[in-house]
Amino acid sequence: MLAVADLILFWHRRDLRLEDSTGLAAGRALTPRIVGLFCLDPILLRGPGVAAVRVQYLLGCLADLQQAYHRIGSHLILVEGDPRQMIPQVAATLRPQAVYWHQDVEPYARQRDAAVAQALADLGIPSQTFWDQLLHPPDAVTTQAGRPFTVYTPFWKAWNRLPKGDPLPTPQNCVGLTPEEMNRVKAVVRRDLPTLRDLGYESAVELGVEPGTSAALHLLETFCADPIRRYGEDRNFPAIPGTSQLSAALKFGVVGIRQVWAASQEAAGLYPGDLEQAAIQTWQQELAWREFYQHGLYHFPHLVDQAHRRIFDQFPWDNQAAHFEAWCTGQTGYPMVDAAMRQLNETGWMHNRCRMIVASFLTKDLLIDWRWGEHYFMERLVDGDLSANNGGWQWSASVGMDPKPLRIFNPATQAARFDPEGAYIRHWLPELRGVDTPELLSGQMLPIERAGRGYPPPIVDHKRQQALFKQRYQRLTQGAALT
Fold first, then answer.
1. Overall fold of domain 136-167+212-299
2. Rounded distance, CA 477 to CA 341, Å?
3. Which residue among the candidates 101, 283, 289, 349 is catalytic per the annotation?
4. 261 is catalytic
5. Contact 38, 14 (CB under 8 A)
6. Which CATH number fits domain 1-133: 3.30.565.10, 3.40.50.620, 2.60.40.10, 1.10.260.40?
7. Is residue 283 among the annotated active site residues?
8. What digits encode the pLDDT tens for the residues 105-150?
9. What would the pLDDT profile of 350-372 be if each residue is shown by its tens digit?
10. Is 352 among the catalytic positions?
11. Catalytic residue among 80, 181, 210, 286
């Protein structure tokens, strides 16, 4: 048991909040001397696949977290560099009784954390870790044989049966570092948060969602007060604000997953109708999809750069650079695809229905390796999360977990079903606003009209390309079955 005056350093990563925090609640139960620590890791701030908009959101969350620590009487200290060096260096300077942090599923994070734990142990400083970003940690949801699930529906059934924890109390009346401790550590810590420009990015953009815990809790409250009861239907229509907009908040942990679950359960108590109950459960199932993909990455770390179904690492992709460039820039000649890609490029976010459409198009129409699209998304998304992005791309390419049935999205059919008035397409493709709705949705515009509006012809024929994909897919899977 720690003495009441003992110091605990809490190392924040993707848990940028004080509310509903497993590690912070555990630390505060032992001592009021809780000090937050965040390391500005160059690998995660300036490495390949890092989106400027995501870094901008992160910096806003850190500013919010600094203020939150100030309100409870403590502070968040910042260091910059390799965490494997910086976290032990801070600990060696302050000699805390323990360093706490939350576990992660990503391979880089697990390797980094093991190195930090060993360095602390070499210094004689204990560390303690907790699961926090998931309602159920990876080893808690398994098949009867004790293996991880690789198909979603049985995972959901097992996951949903498990009891969910209640939100945890926010630490209060804490005590920060003494002036003498601050003086000792000042040579190591940063005085201020860096700006985007400090980190090598050109300029800030207008974020579609406000960073920080208060903003996330407001989004959660607003969504669960009404839109959640229509989520089952509205979530599919990109022109309708029918989703929670919480994906970035969950990525960076500015809202606790237990808070999120509790809010959905409270909404279920408010809306007893069958349709509303089904809609709320549909949203809860999306939370389970998030955990399904995190569990998958934890158990199968090769997913970072390889297909879950390893035979598909041999798939004969075409990988035409010109086709990829057209897809990236929203110039494929398929209005629904192009509208979605322009939304991503201009805002750093894309509606989930559209993510599935453009991923299917890249892999099954353009026959381009899913990893190209996965990497492009991570370079653009404010909510870019390795497990969710990777899982979604592998699902769309039919190379990952839960691969059946073979799913191929027809962009025109998807547009007609989920953007029937063409509002979404017209918003993001202003050059097509004057096109009649049937032609807009089907993409069957005359070449002269396309040329007159500065919009390209289709770069491929969907019917022919999907047949070609199926042919290659079946040849590969049948060959694997025979070996």
1. 1.25.40
2. 31
3. 289
4. no
5. no
6. 3.40.50.620
7. no
8. 999 999 999 999 999 999 999 999 999 999 999 999 999 999 999 9
9. 999 999 999 999 999 999 999 99
10. yes
11. 286
